Predict the 3D structure of the following.
Amino acid sequence: MNEQQRKRIIDKHRDSLTRHGYHPHALYWSGRDIQEVRFQMLANIGIASGDSVLDVGCGFGDFKSWSEQQDSPLQYTGIDLSPDLLAQAKGYHQDAVFFTGDLFDMSFENKSFDWVILSGALNEQLHDESAYAKSIIARMYQLCRKGTAFNMLDARALTTHDLHSQTPKNILIFCQKLSPNCSVIDDYLANDFTIYMMR
Ligand SMILES: C[S@@+](CC[C@H](N)C(=O)[O-])C[C@H]1O[C@@H](n2cnc3c(N)ncnc32)[C@H](O)[C@@H]1O
């Protein structure tokens, strides 16, 4: 990701936060239900109470709040490019750790977290034939002890090229080169799929 792309993502979230405040719309989700059905799919990989989770592109840290509502508190670390969203997240979650930047700005040791998850942070169109998305997925998998779960927009359902999307099949083929145990879930929303990569 180049500096211009990074700035665009930071600026658009600053604008959306100013317009919407603490609301899924500030994250470009159409509603809380759409956000939370994605959380449920991520959690279904097997995330349990007390597990350590790195959430890449964490926004407000809403996955942490949602997990607590499911009686499954986590040891939660979030990273995000947007310092504005993270300033809010830090206020809501004083028992969590947050870092500003992208995954390649961080120097975490391999296998630092039980689970590494991502929801919505690979939707930015970078016009690089998914090279950045694949590099993030590979790094996420290096950082997990138990598994990695992430979602992407489904190119089979998407008509706009303003957002980055892929087919589940292409991404699954890529992930299977990294992990011996991968699976796809694509029956929860029309335009989204989730991939699990287990250790
Ligand atoms: C659709 S929002 C989802 C936020 C959160 N995962 C949720 O579901 O509530 C996408 C988030 O990813 C962040 N983001 C986008 N690209 C990123 C990147 N390459 N690295 C880190 N954060 C990124 C954005 O700033 C934004 O907060």
